[in-house]
Structure formats: structure tokens, C-alpha cells
Design goal:
The protein is α/β, with parallel strands linked by helices and 218 residues long. It has helices at 18-31, 38-42, 49-59, 66-84, 96-105, 119-125, 149-158, 172-180, 209-217, and strands at 5-8, 110-113, 134-136, 165-169, 184-188, 199-201. It folds into 2 domains: 5-16 and 89-217, Rossmann fold, CATH 3.40.50.1000; 18-84, DNA polymerase, domain 1. Helix 1 (18-31) runs antiparallel to helix 4.
Length: 218
């Protein structure tokens, strides 16, 4: 049996928490007099909370103290956690369970590789945590994507060489990280944004079991 490592990002790949990040960031930005749009929210995908707040401050041409910076980050997380507390399995993106279950039937190791510090909580909320052999999230890494650290740690935990790993990502930074790690990158989303991935699909409904099988056997 050929064993590959399948590594999934969380936000925008397994569940769509982008809407909750947007609401929390918008509330924060507006509270300091900065406009915040969904287009800007797209540009925060896959990057850390610190970097996200730095970008918002730059867009609004604002300077704040270190103390206020820390307070705002904590408030943003609190708002976001209030939203995700109400998540359930209905928020899993289409056909994700089918792909995870198919990988299980093929005895393929599965990991999560996410920048989110709330990844474990979200997986528990949507009842998918048991599908993952390893979970690497924002609490386990020191470098944010496009640095490949999160995926390299996931590969190590699965005991699979990086070149035998396949990454599912919805962000530009995440696809770059997978490419730097010499893993197969599969973009989930818009091909015009994720064109640097090895393959791009709108969502998992376009990914057949046969395609997964081909990845296993290649």
C-alpha cells in the first residue's frame, strides 16, 4: 500500500470561517475609525493575527500603542470565538467529509496544517477532529505561511517525506508554502488567484475519488 500524506488547511478549505473573521476584523477596524471591506479581508487570508492588524493599521494610516495593539488583538479573538462557538457540522464545506472518508478507506494519513490558533476548537465544533491523525495549528508554529513550517511539521508528525505530501489550500500564502516545501499543492477556490498551485478546483465537489486515487498512486 502506497502511503501519501494529505494535509488540509482549515479556513476556507474544510469550513468557511472567513465570514466570522470578516465580521470580527470589521468591528475592530471600525472601532478605530478604519473602513474595512471584504476585498481587504481576502488579503488577510492565511496570515497571522499580528500581521493582519498591522495591515489594517497601514490601510487606515493609523498608529497605536503596543498596549492598545495587544488589547485589540485580544478583543478580535474574543469576538471571533463568540461566532465559532455556534458552529456545527452544517458549516462543513461541500464534499469535504466524502474526501476525508475516502482517504480513511485507503489508509492514507491525514493532517491539519492551519494558521488558526482555534483549529482544534473548530474541528470539535463541527465533529471532524477524529478524522485527523495529526493537527498542527497556530499554537505549534513560530513562522507564518508562506513559510512552510506548518506543513513540514505536519509531514514529520505523519512520518511521510514532504515530497510525498499533498496540501489543500485556499490562500496564496498557503499554496506558496506548499510549493516551497516541495509538496503537491491543490488550490481550493479561484484559479485566477491560485494559479501557482499544481491543481486548482472550485471546491471539493470537483475532486473525484479517482483523482485522489491517482494522487496516491503517482
Amino acid at each position: 500500500m502506497i502511503r501519501k500524506g494529505f494535509i488540509f488547511d482549515l479556513d476556507g478549505v474544510i469550513v468557511d470561517t472567513a465570514k466570522y473573521h470578516f465580521l470580527a476584523w470589521k468591528k475592530l477596524a471600525n472601532s478605530i475609525g478604519v473602513d474595512f471591506t471584504e476585498v481587504q479581508n481576502e488579503r488577510l487570508k492565511g496570515i497571522s493575527r499580528v500581521k493582519s492588524l498591522e495591515k489594517i493599521l497601514a490601510w487606515g494610516n493609523k498608529e497605536i500603542s503596543e498596549t492598545q495593539f495587544s488589547q485589540l488583538m485580544a478583543l478580535k479573538n474574543e469576538d471571533y470565538l463568540n461566532y465559532i462557538e455556534h458552529m456545527d457540522a452544517s458549516e462543513i464545506l461541500p464534499d469535504v467529509p466524502r474526501v476525508l472518508n475516502f482517504l480513511k478507506t485507503q489508509n492514507q494519513p491525514i493532517a491539519l496544517g492551519s494558521a488558526s490558533k482555534n483549529a482544534r476548537t473548530i474541528l470539535e465544533q463541527v465533529n471532524l477532529k477524529s478524522h485527523f491523525d495529526s493537527i498542527v495549528d497556530g499554537n505549534d508554529v513560530s513562522k507564518a505561511k508562506p513559510d512552510p513550517e506548518v506543513f513540514l511539521i505536519a509531514a514529520q508528525l505523519l512520518n511521510i517525506a514532504p515530497e510525498n505530501c499533498i496540501v489543500f489550500e485556499d490562500s496564496v500564502a498557503g499554496v506558496e508554502a506548499a510549493n516551497v516545501a516541495k509538496m503537491i499543492s491543490i488550490g481550493i477556490g479561484d484559479a485566477s488567484i491560485l494559479g501557482h498551485a499544481d491543481y486548482v478546483f472550485k471546491d471539493f465537489t470537483q475532486i473525484s475519488n479517482q483523482f485522489i486515487n491517482n494522487l496516491i498512486n503517482r
